[in-house]
Amino acid sequence: MSTASPTTCQPVLIAGRWRDAAVADQFRATDPNQNRPIETDFPVSGWSDIDEALSAAAAAATELRRTPPEKIAEFLEAFADLIAADAEALVESAHLETGLAKQPRLADVELPRTIGQLRLAAAAAREGSWAMPVIDTKASIRACYESLGPVCVFGPNNFPFAFGSCSGGDFAAAIAAGNPVIAKANSSHPETTRRFAALALTAIESTGLPPATVQLIYRTSHTDGERMVADPRCGASGYTGSRHAGLALKAAADAAGKPIYLELSSVNPVVITPAALAERGDALVDEFVGSVLMGAGQFCTNPGLILLVKGEASDRFVAAVTDKFAAATPGTLLSPAVTRSLGQAVDTLVTAGAKLLTGGGEPLPDRCARANTWLSATGSQFLSDPEIFQTEAFGNASLVVVADDVAQLVAVIESLEGNLTGCIYSANGDDDAYSPIAFALAPKVGRLLNDKMPTGVAVSPAMNHGGPYPATGHPGFTAVGIPAAIHRFAKLTCYDNVRQPRLPALLRDANPTGKTWRNIDGQWTCGDVG
Amino acid sequence: MSTASPTTCQPVLIAGRWRDAAVADQFRATDPNQNRPIETDFPVSGWSDIDEALSAAAAAATELRRTPPEKIAEFLEAFADLIAADAEALVESAHLETGLAKQPRLADVELPRTIGQLRLAAAAAREGSWAMPVIDTKASIRACYESLGPVCVFGPNNFPFAFGSCSGGDFAAAIAAGNPVIAKANSSHPETTRRFAALALTAIESTGLPPATVQLIYRTSHTDGERMVADPRCGASGYTGSRHAGLALKAAADAAGKPIYLELSSVNPVVITPAALAERGDALVDEFVGSVLMGAGQFCTNPGLILLVKGEASDRFVAAVTDKFAAATPGTLLSPAVTRSLGQAVDTLVTAGAKLLTGGGEPLPDRCARANTWLSATGSQFLSDPEIFQTEAFGNASLVVVADDVAQLVAVIESLEGNLTGCIYSANGDDDAYSPIAFALAPKVGRLLNDKMPTGVAVSPAMNHGGPYPATGHPGFTAVGIPAAIHRFAKLTCYDNVRQPRLPALLRDANPTGKTWRNIDGQWTCGDVG
User: Fold this and answer.
1) Same domain, B285 and B247
2) Are A183 and A165 in contact (CB under 8 A)?
3) Residue B185: predicted pLDDT
4) pTM for this model (two decimals)
5) How many domains does chain A have?
6) Residue B263 appears among annotated catalytic residues
7) Which of A439, B259, B379, B411 is deepest in the core (most CB within 10 A)?
């Protein structure tokens, strides 16, 4: 914590106005490339900030229910344009606060993706198919998804743009559904989030949305965060981050009957069959090392666990990865907290009996970083305590588990918790190994990949960036992919015997856009009723 | 509790076998028409029964994942046929245990509905559109809903067939998604549930499904019930019943990250605008009285709260309802527990200041019943303590709230918790009243009705039998309506770069039935890919 006076803190955005926070405390972000605090103070908001934000959001939610989807789409597009125009400063800020490379990562990959998501969300809001209108003409019953109320978004440390609380997927989905957002910045990149909020406010003003459609606070006490997601004025929450903090918010939201969508932790098992290893082991080494070490391994879908069957080919694979890990310059980690927790996770695995093949040790002295770390365990070791061997080591570390045979490998898979992804690398004619592995793995993951590393998460309508607990809080929802991600922030409303002019436009006889997909009497169509 | 020896207890159905329960205690149901216990002992199962059921269900779930949907459909249809053939005995048993009329209610309405739901679920399982396949050909990513694992179903007291744990909507939806069911009978009609389980086992045997596809226990301790829904082997749970018991199960399931779908309590507000009351007040009296007193008011969607604006027409309405309530013979309540809790709820309302217009007092002596009860409060009274005035009086009772004007009526609506339904009766040209009322009411309810009482719940694909908390546990799901109700018991799985023959049939290029709706590159179609 800084000792500077509270009045020098950056302002919060509440009810359409930048103003001094009700400062309960203050904090600074760190430049991980220097491992040194950045000289800007941000406030930890007291409850009165949150209380005011919730009231303003509730009023905005009511107003947004009267706002045509077209205007919401215009806001999202205006915001996307402003982001594109401010790209250089955003990239500069995010680089300073996260240590992520300006190019290609921030400027060429994450920012275009973020802008693309906002445009997709705009298109979805405009078209309305996301609301899944269902019309039963005989029974005179019609239903669709509708906005839910203020959505609190807690963004993660690892994607300051694409999952950012004021710019990312949860934000875009919540707005597209017609909800205001209260963004809780990730404490590791508050200035970047502040810039997004400023652009959002400009877009709000230019398109005439309610001023409190987007609000920003930087940090709260745990108690106030839990109170916020459980507040009667809150419609739902989205959280991406550590399991511990996420589960505390989930408990509070659950007890109040408020939906909360979580993306927590995942070790993202990668299985390579013996035949695939024999066929193309060397190429797989490069593919795997690239996926693990990219971005210092700080992806939700980073392959933290790789499963092999013992033999000469797997010995070679493990040795080659050891060499490459040792030779590669470790990437910079996002923050001192990440550096610390990565060290703790590696210690946990080593204490449990995992063998340290390379890496480990103390953090690097001058920046947030640790040696690339590669550990191994046998299938029997893993099965003796699956929970401990599934400890997520978020960062540039991975654990290889070498099973005695395919049967033991399947047993290891059966002992896994829920994960976002699971990958299987196999060879042609390899079905005897593939089938039992895939059958065991599919129920454990949100996305099953073949011959492909999990670190890319395409923005596709067929994407599932989700998975069984504890990867997320519910196995039926995805955090990436338009329109599916929007459903999370909506309520189903049914209109029974309601007269035409009183129905929402999406449910009237005439298709509101001529392009909206609706299910009419069991048939999907863009046509009108009758 | 009976004092008979445990060995005379009815058997439980576990792992395909009727066997003696691990009896922790025992109980008898009551014939509410006599207010007298029925002379059959049922076991309260200890944990070992549940443990065995969960293991058998987990094994069955694995086997069901390899079972073609066609076979699941055949089972549901065979079960429906067996129910139709056993109708007389089922109606006899349910009448004895619940006091519900054999005709028309049980034989002519609820049983045909139940059979119809099972057939609809069979058709949905066969067709596969419920799984919402989404195919992105360019990205080579494909996703659909898939089975989730064993589903624990807790049925309510008020629909022994249509919402029964071994026959009703949750059961049908869970099976259609490919999950085994562990049915927890409602303790008020264990024999009826036992009959359904026996028919289900016959249908399982004739169609060759895994024997543990349907299992039955009658009752557990609260602790064991909570342990069951949180068990790693459980996929999800469905619960319909009282708020108190439901929330205890929800807390346990939530903490373990297990989906649980709840239908709890609802007062189902009915609003009549002054113009509608002036136009057709007498007809509305009959409609309202019929809806409240039907089945002794024991429907989830029973109108327990009616909102009027003060004036002569509403005075007349209230007086006419008073007379009709006083004149009508009270229906029989489902059980001594319902009789007791109805009395408590009326006491709570009276203590809060509601005026007892008719009814109240002691229960009737010879059967489970109470006088039809009609209470009133002013809008100001309601607003002074909305929580207490929303106490659900499950049974033949209703509260009228008379507001000073439309503005106060809207304030009352804004103070409501989540409900399953909300009704508005209005007149032509009544939009000045209708609009603010509907705008306030829609976000509070799962289903908004016009000029229609809420007590009918059509089995329509557009139905939402759900609503915001505490009506249910999540505002995005419906418990009635095929296919939407099926999604609750499924997980989303995405296949990324998976080769054609390794994809689930629903996601391969060829449409598996030629009739399955799939979203291919943004277009809904029953066609093939390419």
Assistant:
1) no
2) yes
3) 98
4) 0.97
5) 2
6) yes
7) B259
